[in-house]
Structures are given as C-alpha cells and as structure tokens.
C-alpha cells in the first residue's frame, strides 16, 4: 500500500474537528470540563485548528488514576481538547491503517469485536477436532502497552505515512516529555511509582490513538506469522494471541520463532502465561473459556460482572440513577449472556436483580 500523503489538512478541517468533538462527548456531555468547552465551542475549535495549522499544538498534562479490574492498571486521561484532537486524527487515519491489518485481528475494529473473535476460534476448533487431536499455543505478551518501544513505533508510522506535519503530532503524542508511560522489564505497575517509570517506551492506556498504535505495532507480528511462518489458524485480539496446530512440536518451534521476532524486532517479551495445550482442555480467550462444543465465561469475568451489577444496584438504591438507566445496564449484560451457555448464571443474576429492585420498591 502507498504511503499516506497530504492528509493533515483533512484532520484540521473545521468540519472534521466538529465531528471529532461530537465523537468525544458521547456519553460524557454533562461533565464539567466538557460543558465549559461546549460553552465556547466554535472559539475552542478554531483555536485548536490554528494550533494544528501553525504547529503550536502541544499535548496537555495527563490526569493519572488506577483501575483494579481485571488487574491494577494505570489509566492516563487527557484534557478534553486533546481528546478532540485524537478523535480528529482517528477519524481520518484509522480507516486507512485498518485496511492494512489482517482479517483475523479483532480488537478495536468495526464489524469485529470479542464475540466474533470467540466464534471464529470455536469454528476452527470444531473443524480441527473432527480430524483428530489438536493443540493451541497461547501467546501472552508481558505488560504490552507499557513496553511498546517509541522509536520502533515511529519507524513503523514513517513507513506508512509520508505526511511530515502529521508525523510531528504523532511524535508529540508518543514521546510526551512531561509524562513517563513505560515499565522496566519484569516490573509490575503495582511495584513502581511515577518517577520510576520510563521514557522512550509505553503508551498511555485510555488514549484513542494508543489503541490504534497498539494494533499497528503487533500488525508486524501478524504479517510475520501469516507470510513468513505461513500460519493459517492465527487469531489476535490486541495482545491476546491464539495459534492452532495438529503438531505439538511444531507449535513449540513456532513459539521459538515468534519469541525471537518479538524480542529482536519489537523489543517485547512473552510472559509465563504463554503455553501449549490440547484444545480439548478449552482455550481461555478474551474473557471466555472456549471448547468446540460450548463457551463459558471465565470465573474471574463472572465475578467482575456480579461486582459491577452490585455497583449499579448501589447507585440505584442511593437514587443516583433511575429505573430506566438500571434496566439499560441489565439489558446490556443480558446481551452478553446470549453469546454463550449461561442458563445458571442468568438465573443467578435474575434473582439478584429481582431482590435488589424489590427491596427498593417495598
């Protein structure tokens, strides 16, 4: 594919900035910072447009906070102006870059997603197990977002993009001088403070462009797996990768080749969750455990779901959300449950729902 040229003017086009603003406020329009930005919307968008045109745009300071599900992660939240900027970039660039990705990568892509990834993997398993014994290689990359190498990422972007102005903005987003995103090799986010984090590696979890960059970074591995290793049953959801093969020893060889590629070309490491096992044991993938005959939610996912529902019920009981909002939350979980065998879990959640709602209305 030809390198992307002369696209920066489309990014700072006022109409694109306006629709980027509309994308950025979805589900958040009543937050104080967004209401302040909206109060002088045209003026703020013109200011942002001028910053991009005259190359004075700088990324603002991040707000840092932690989330603890499924594990402790550091989230870095941008100022609203910067989120509008990222949406403006994403609207124009991501559809072009997405065309360069392989078909069997499913994270953060239109018409893809975790449920389609699960069902694609299960279809492979059904076909394979009719032929005989099959194995899977599960690849787990250590601290993926925290270990992405900035120089390698910029080199990848330069191979695909010839627009100098856009590359300069990407460099400001990726190599933020005021904020450290990276973890030392072997360290955990729970073990380090902000001063011990590294410059030159890592992407902030929560950024829209981080999702795009992270997908593009491992596209290098996807291309290696498909075109060099000639793998037919290779599937990826961000940094969660499964490979199926009838030969266990061949999967061992593939693991060695992939590990070498990750270390040498992308400066990434596999962790001790990487394994080779028979498909009949079931495969853990994107929060599910998958067999050729059925699909179940992982126990940890069920626990998180119940905790989340309890959290929603508490807000309802405190009068912080109304019945309509509560019902929408319940409906979203019911939608998830339709994708796998969940009779017992549905009954459990229904009982919890009836109990909580009945107590509120007594």
From TrEMBL:
Pfam families according to UniProt: RVT_1
CDD domains per UniProt: RT_Bac_retron_I
SUPFAM superfamilies for the chain: DNA/RNA polymerases
GN (gene name): ltrA
Record-annotated membrane-spanning stretches: none
InterPro entries from the UniProt entry: DNA/RNA_pol_sf (IPR043502), GrpII_Intron_Splice-Mob/Def (IPR051083), RT_dom (IPR000477)
Protein name (database record): Group II intron-encoded protein ltrA
Residue intervals of the Reverse transcriptase domain: 1-290
